[in-house]
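Dear H.,

Thanks for agreeing to be a second pair of eyes. The structure we're designing against is below in token form, covering all 92 positions.
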């Protein structure tokens, strides 16, 4: 509900069509979406896709990937593979 103009006389009803940033449910929505994406779009025959899926499912807190790796190259590789997995989804 919001006022139609600065006179504050008429109230207008608005409907949100997207998820609000910083809403109480935002962390849950981010986690669900990432996990849903991995289940739906990873390639079970591709080792790099499996590694990215495992990273998202086990090393994410809300939308932050938290992991320690042995080398910078390993870190760059897992990030690139995760980005590729996220890009592979088809728009609804």
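And this is the sequence the design step returned. I haven't edited it by hand at all.
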């Amino acid at each position: 509900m919001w006022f139609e103009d600065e006179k504050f006389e008429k109230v207008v009803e608005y409907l949100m069509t997207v998820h609000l940033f910083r809403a109480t449910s935002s962390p849950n929505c981010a986690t669900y979406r990432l996990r849903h994406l991995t289940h739906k779009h990873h390639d079970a025959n591709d080792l790099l896709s499996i590694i990215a899926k495992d990273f998202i499912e086990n090393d994410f807190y809300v939308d932050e990937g938290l992991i320690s790796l042995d080398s910078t190259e390993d870190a760059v590789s897992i990030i690139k593979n995760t980005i590729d997995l996220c890009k592979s989804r088809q728009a609804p």
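Two observations from my side: The first helix runs from residue 26 to 41. The chain has one domain: 23-87.

Warmly,
E.
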